């Protein structure tokens, strides 16, 4: 497995002086996802929880609906210049009867750590229809509980604390418990990892969870939540216009600017208890 952080020398200039010291950087490496030996996507990610990432990705793309749809996940041979396995190629074998992804899911060469939909080969494949309607999710949470979530998330961002360079995502319960937290250089990868955790734990659909993200709420992240049957997405930063439209269309609750005791409720405010 690749390293989560990398140490590099840096020259630091500040008001107190000029000195050189080692600095911790968040690792970023490519991961090639294959299904049945066929290359599907290459994403730039922080190594770790790759099997979760693959399951979450396939769930959010509509390829699988749960753990039973995957027979096995295994790393393929991929070596660096020293002949060591890079663990950067992961092959997923689907269970019998599960159709392989159609061509619309294939990515043009790679997806960057900041964008997961911009590489899609077909524009009409961007908007997906979920098999688990989030509109029926009877999830409700107090506004005071939501207010404490960003600090709880930050407290569990161990790699962010040392590098300052990672996004985070979490699945939380109505009482504010964070059931799982994952970090990654790509915000979409962090979400795929927590969704993949839910797949492997047999918790999909997940109407009893909310999704919390450390950055902004994009169209893609709303779509990923909808594909998992999650009815509430909370972000510490701003949503995009398409994110709000998609959340409204799917009967979801979308919260932005969740900071301290304030937040903006863009859609689905019936799930917020004051």
Given the helix and strand composition, which structural class is it?
alpha/beta
CATH topology of the largest domain: Cytidine Deaminase, domain 2
Question: What is the C-level CATH assignment of the largest domain?
Answer: Alpha Beta
Could you say which overall geometry the principal axes of the C-alpha atoms support? flat
Family: Belongs to the FdhD family.
Subcellular location: Cytoplasm
Protein name: Sulfur carrier protein FdhD
Function: Required for formate dehydrogenase (FDH) activity. Acts as a sulfur carrier protein that transfers sulfur from IscS to the molybdenum cofactor prior to its insertion into FDH.
What does this structure look like?
Keywords: Cytoplasm, Molybdenum cofactor biosynthesis. InterPro entries: Cytidine_deaminase-like, FdhD. It comes from Amycolatopsis bullii. Pfam families: FdhD-NarQ (PF02634). Required for formate dehydrogenase (FDH) activity. Acts as a sulfur carrier protein that transfers sulfur from IscS to the molybdenum cofactor prior to its insertion into FDH. This protein has 274 residues and is of the alpha/beta class. The protein has two domains: 29-125, Ubiquitin-like (UB roll), CATH 3.10.20.10; 134-273, Cytidine Deaminase, domain 2 (3-Layer(aba) Sandwich). Helix content is 22%, strand content 31%. It is built from seven helices and 14 strands. The strands form four sheets. The protein has a six-stranded mixed sheet with strand order 9-8-10-11-12-13, sandwiched between helices. The longest helix is centred in the C-terminal third of the chain and has 14 residues, at 187-200. The termini are far apart. The relative contact order is 0.15. Mean pLDDT is 88; it is low at 121-126.
């Amino acid at each position: 497995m690749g390293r989560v952080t990398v140490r590099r020398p840096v020259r630091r200039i500040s008001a107190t002086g000029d000195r050189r010291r080692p600095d911790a950087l968040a690792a970023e490496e490519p991961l090639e996802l294959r299904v049945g030996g066929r290359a599907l996507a290459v994403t730039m990610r922080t190594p770790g929880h790759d099997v979760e990432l693959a399951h979450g990705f396939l769930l959010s793309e509509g390829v699988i609906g749960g753990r039973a749809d995957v027979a096995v996940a295994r790393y393929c041979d991929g070596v660096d210049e020293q002949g060591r396995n890079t663990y950067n190629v992961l092959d997923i074998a689907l269970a019998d009867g599960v159709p392989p992804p159609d061509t619309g899911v294939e990515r043009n060469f790679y997806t960057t750590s900041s964008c997961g939909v911009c590489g899609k080969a077909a524009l009409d494949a961007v908007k997906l229809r979920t098999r688990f309607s989030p509109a029926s999710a009877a999830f409700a949470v107090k506004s005071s509980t939501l207010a404490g979530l960003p600090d709880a998330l930050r407290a569990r961002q161990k790699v962010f604390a040392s590098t300052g360079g990672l996004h985070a995502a979490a699945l939380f319960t109505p009482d504010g418990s964070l059931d799982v937290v994952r970090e990654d250089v790509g915000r979409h990868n962090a979400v795929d990892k927590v969704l993949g955790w839910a797949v492997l734990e047999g918790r999909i659909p997940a109407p009893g969870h909310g999704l919390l993200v450390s950055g902004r709420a994009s169209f893609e992240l709303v779509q990923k939540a909808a594909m998992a049957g999650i009815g509430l997405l909370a972000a510490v930063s701003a949503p995009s216009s398409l994110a709000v439209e998609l959340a409204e269309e799917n009967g979801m609750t979308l919260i932005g600017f969740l900071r301290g005791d304030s937040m903006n409720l863009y859609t689905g405010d019936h799930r917020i208890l004051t």
